[in-house]
Write a structure and sequence with these properties.
Blueprint (H helix, E strand, L loop, with lengths): L13 H13 L10 H17 L9 E4 L21 E4 L5 E2 L26 H8 L5 H13 L13 H14 L13 H14 L10 H9 L3 H12 L4 H18 L2 H4 L3 H12 L7 H6 L1 H13 L1 H4 L1
Antiparallel strand pairs: 1-2, 2-3
Helix pairs in contact: 1-2, 4-6, 5-6, 6-11, 7-8, 7-13, 9-13, 11-13
């Protein structure tokens, strides 16, 4: 007996329901639809729509040497993991257990689990978005929404510091409650607390938003005098960023561009925002303090260029 549109509701995955319901509404008369080509098409459309919403970011495993209790088998080669201590390595983000030698052959397909990813701040950006199945870190989305809803005209936005203890409270709220954290005006009336929490998130990233690998190319672009060549080099530098970092940077720059549209009220133009966000989004991979100090003016210029040319570069 063939399954039908009206008889199989309890067996359908939730993602199909809106599409099947739409067919019901569009039909001139109630009709029975067998689960053949039409239903297969619905599933395909639903799957494609879901895949469009959340991009698939590649992520390497975060392996650490681990001592396993009791017998364990490698999840890559399926062979026994011998020894009493340090028998293999375990991914701190997804829990994958493999031999140390096998870890070099495991593909970059880490799927972080919220059982292992317990923080928002100080967590690798790609790890966080994969664990929560989002395009960007929720702290970035939530803070920017709150700032744009009530703070765009605030004088010295992002330049004026909020009370550090309350900024720390926001950080703990995100680490504890994730997307359920309350950062509304009822909890934090001063918008500078929210801007401070957003800046702190970027400063706390173990790998900066503009990564160490891409850093030299971004600095190189800031030193170029020809405007066209400068933008071309900056565009090449953006391609070096991991997808989750690039998407977050795009979203942030679009927001900062909107901040500059209220310059008359908030007194924050692209140059001022570059001064604030340059050292926040970029950190020199060089350990030499003098070299890092000399880069500060170029960091400022990079962010200023990204804001001014946001619509062209992304």
């Amino acid at each position: 007996m063939a399954l039908t549109l009206f008889d199989t509701d309890e067996y359908r995955p939730p993602v199909w329901k809106s599409y099947l319901y739409q067919l019901q509404q569009e039909a001139p008369h109630p009709r029975r639809i067998t689960c053949t080509n039409e239903l297969t098409s619905l599933v395909r459309r639903a799957t494609l729509k879901e895949n469009e919403q959340i991009p698939k970011y590649e992520k390497v495993h975060n392996f650490k040497v681990h001592t396993f209790r009791g017998p364990h088998w490698c999840e890559y080669c399926a062979n026994f993991m011998w020894g009493l201590i340090a028998q293999g390595v375990k991914c701190a983000d997804c829990g994958l257990n493999v031999h140390k030698q096998c870890s070099k052959m495991v593909p970059n397909d880490c799927k972080p689990d919220l059982k292992h990813v317990k923080k928002v701040y100080s967590c690798d950006l790609t790890t966080l978005v994969k664990a929560h199945i989002t395009k960007r870190p929720m702290v970035v989305d939530m803070c920017i929404r709150e700032i744009e809803s009530r703070g765009l005209n605030s004088e010295g936005l992002y330049r004026v510091s909020g009370f550090s203890d309350l900024i720390e409270d926001v950080k703990m709220a995100f680490d504890r409650d994730g997307e359920k954290a309350d950062i509304s005006v009822n909890m934090y009336e001063d918008i500078n607390i929210i801007t401070g929490a957003l800046k702190l998130y970027f400063r706390d990233l173990p790998i900066p938003l503009i990564t160490y690998d891409a850093y030299p190319k971004f600095i190189e672009s800031a030193k170029i005098m020809d405007p066209d060549e400068q933008l071309e080099t900056l565009h090449e530098a953006l391609k070096l960023l991991p997808p989750a970092h690039c998407e977050t940077l795009r979203y942030l720059m679009a927001h900062l561009k909107r901040v500059t549209l209220h310059e008359k009220e908030n007194l924050m133009n692209a140059e001022n925002l570059g001064i604030v966000f340059g050292p926040t989004l970029m950190r020199s991979p060089e350990l030499d303090a003098m070299a890092a100090l000399n880069d500060i003016r170029y960091q400022r210029l990079v962010v200023e260029l990204l804001i001014k040319n946001e619509d062209i570069l992304f």
